[in-house]
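In keeping with the milestone schedule agreed at the kick-off meeting, the structural modelling team has produced records for the first pair of proteins. Each record is given below as a sequence line and a structure-token line. The laboratory manager (R.T.) confirmed that both were archived under the project's standard naming scheme.
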Amino acid sequence: MVRYSISTLVTSAFCSVFLAAVLVAMPVVTEGLFSPWTYAALTALLLISLYMLLVCLRWRIRVENGELLITPVFGGKKTVRIIDITEVVSKGNVVIAYLGGKRLFTLDISSINADLLIKDLKNRGRMRG
């Protein structure tokens, strides 16, 4: 199973807790010293870190019997046969898989077990680059 790295999960969890604590404590400690834009910016950062936390917890790719079971962050699971994948391209630190010309998934090579999936795709002749 391919998942985001533990360090990404821990970092996004820490950022979420820290930003939530700051947003709760700022009005009490500073007594109106900061503008509403400061609160809006911190709230935006909190939402981004919560989204990344959700991505780390939910997103995964599992290989079973020649099929990829892809669980995206939003939406239902997708099952794709590996032989149906038309192209897999390596670009820098990411691997992008295409199904019929449409992007199927983008995989960061630092993800847990990404090397095993990449090796499997190379062995099946689906990867170039």
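The second protein of the pair:
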Amino acid sequence: MTSSSLRPRPLQRANSESTRPAEPIEVLCQRYGNQILDLIPQQLLDKAKDITLADMLGSEITTCETISWLINVVKFTKFYTLNDTPDNIEFYQELLGIKNLLSTQCIRDCFKLSDALRVEFKSTKQQSYRTNVFLKPMAPVKRQQVPPQKPFAEELTLLKAKQIIMSYIKKCRENKQNDFTFIDICEVIEKYHLEGDELRWSSKDQTVVGNDTVQWKATISNALQFFQNKEDLTYITRKNVWYVLPHYA
């Protein structure tokens, strides 16, 4: 509930009587973004900690608007270039990773429902008698504690991927295992790099690169190509497997 004096004034158009130049959108985003943060009380932030993004996406009464919000965040964040701190960049990339998991059908259905809700809300005929059942008093519900997030692992480098793959190739030769799939080696590297299930992939490793592939899998592909060039491996297309070539001393 901010006063009208705190609302941003509309940008001046070219034919406006005012001679004051229009401010760049990046400047407005920085100024009002910081100003809005200052207006949010700590009590609100403390209360909001009990509700997660997973809660919002997991409820049928909030998932539609939450998806719409998530899409808008990804779409408009490019205008906040003056707020490109490392924390904000990492936070944005995590949100982008979540948004990229939404299917086209999910987004399409979300927009259909969102449009229908707005039409219904604007109908004065309906608003005259419709009551909000969610305002009824109810017994307090004890929320389950959300487990803490796992810490980020270090970025998977090409060197580390090569080291793990080399060890795996030696093991295959010792056990007379002739081939393996890309999924096999990804599972091996993921288990090793994330220390079983103690860590989670870094934000950079979760970044989507070419062909809808995340960064850490692209790094593994590059490492496999390295061993193919060294004639330790060869890829058999018809079987979709990596064949382990024999080692000659």
